[in-house]
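Why do we bother with a discrete structure alphabet at all? Because it lets us treat a fold like text: something you can write down, compare, and reason about line by line. To make this less abstract, here is a complete entry for FMN-dependent oxidoreductase (Nitrilotriacetate monooxygenase family). Read it the way you would read a sentence in a foreign language you are learning: slowly, and without expecting to understand everything at once.
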Amino acid sequence: MSKPRKQIHLAAHFPGVNNTTVWSDPRSGSHIEFGSFVRLAQTAERAKFDFFFLAEGLRLREQAGRIYDLDVVGRPDTFTVLAALAAVTDRLGLAGTINSTFNEPYEVARQFASLDHLSGGRAAWNVVTSWDAFTGENFRRGGFLAEQDRYSRATQFLQAATELFDSWPESRIPADPDRGLFVEDPRIGSFSHRDAHFDIAGRFTVPRGPQGRPVILQAGDSDGGREFAARTADAIFSRHGTLEAGQAFYSDVKRRLPAYGRTPEQLLVLPAATFALGDTDADAQEKAAVIRRQQISGQTALRLLEQLWNRDLSGYDPDGPLPEVDPDLGDAHIARGRASVRMHRDPLATAREWRERATAGNLSIRDLIIEVSGRQTFIGTAATVADRIDDLVQRDAADGFILVPHVTPDGLDEFADTVVPLLQERGVFRTEYTGETLREHLGLSVPAVSGAAR
């Protein structure tokens, strides 16, 4: 018997400040006005996407002491935006990035539980950590945590939040339903959680939501991040969009699940993906090349190179060769609020590789940065892109994709109008929503009440 074809999951990413958006494009709108959020979310819902995904940052990034070029508009509060979107959408899931390093479990659990009720069961939480003291300066508890401590805190943060979500068991016993009277279990809302990071006890104010708990997303790629996702997440947001890298990541995170009593179906792998569509594959390739040069201006190329070199390179010509001087291996002081410098485990080796690549291809600084800083994941006609997405999902390189348009808020329209119908014709993507909640969209069951909350 042939293996049944997997259903593809799709989400729409509202990136906010980033180096993906082509700000020079006339279609590029505000990233803070509510109308932009509404436009992208309603397009995603029209195309029957699983959810809308909102990124968040807790501080504007800086480079060489100045606000980074692409951070000029900032980011509004996640919960405010998602709660407002709940009123102008009906079925679309609403996912937000909320930090576990500089927030508190009670407050975050109360906000997500409220959002889940207000949206009719469509809330999702992308649990992230922060590594830098720069972001911590915005909070009373400044400083930063080492990687193992960040994930330890995140694990306990999520455990505490889970106990809060589950602190309202199904224990309202009707005494006289006609008069609206109930016998209340005195345990309702009661919680007590103590560990190395938190010492909290009291009574939670929000009943268990339609989904039991919000869907949990996680975006870490380190070993600690993958283990955290295997233990706690419903979906993991990855950066591996090619077949080989995607299959390796997919296999790695799925193999970790049995250690936590979980099955492969309980964790979805959803890489981020960009796209460039054209009337022909050649046309799409040309469009993709134009988009990349729009995304990486000469000044942006220098800023991105500085994040590896950890030096002020403003005096260099972006259309000239790479610096002969080696990267500064001292503390990161050029880019603040970005993890890019620390993602290069061996800056000297990376610089050597980039020099060899630039020499072989006769590449300028800008040309090299365009080549190494990523490309559109899917390039081609609508049919080519639909084929590629379906192939990657069916071959277990992903369970679906979180799409990041290069123009917001209208950049998803072409994909929704051309690629989605082809996936629907193949029978691998829904033509209508069949469930009410995000868990139903994703094929996830409502979790049982945790043992600690019983």
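What the structure line is telling us, in plain words: Residues 9-279+378-453 form a domain with the TIM Barrel fold (CATH 3.20.20.30). The mean pLDDT is 87.
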